Amino acid sequence: MTSTSDYPESISLGKGVTLTFEGHIRRVDVRAAEDDDAFIVPSHWHQEHDEVLRVLEGKMKVTLGKQVLICTPETGDVFVPRRVPHSLESFKGVPCVVTERNEPLEFEKKELFFRNLGAIPGGFAEGGLVQVMQIFYHGDGFPVFPVHLPWLEKAFVTILGGYVAPLLGYRIKYENSKKR
């Protein structure tokens, strides 16, 4: 188990993309230099929590169900209800800062989700399907399949992340959130 003194305040989500933990808020900074990665979060949903997003600088494409929003600081808070498929994407070459918090506010699975994604050797892009599904399993995340069937998506994460991953020797690095 990892000591809470080993918990970084920021983690890299890709080249030029940083996530910083600020209490119950997570801040994503997208630098957007020419050779930097875009910030892309594929379509997924949560069973146990809602999210509230806010763009502080730049703009971000947010897909919420079938609705596509181009969010800017003027947009204000964007409420993402639990069980609703959603995705995020920054614009190449456009710097962006976005915050995320969840409801309920004291939902430690979200911090653990991001910390464990950031702890994959070689980064998230290097993580295999089974390893990533283990993190989804512990972090209240479910991918959206081309035909959205929540029961099947949940079973997929539960089987791969909850059963297959431990049998193959995968372990999450962070089991408890950093106490603040």
From TrEMBL:
InterPro entries in alphabetical order: Cupin_2, RmlC-like_jellyroll, RmlC_Cupin_sf
The keyword Transmembrane helix is annotated on this UniProt entry: yes
Domain Cupin type-2: 41-90
Alphabetic keyword roster: Membrane, Transmembrane, Transmembrane helix
The keyword Chloroplast is annotated on this UniProt entry: no
Transmembrane segments: 117-137, 149-170
SUPFAM superfamilies: RmlC-like cupins
Protein's name according to its UniProt entry: Cupin type-2 domain-containing protein
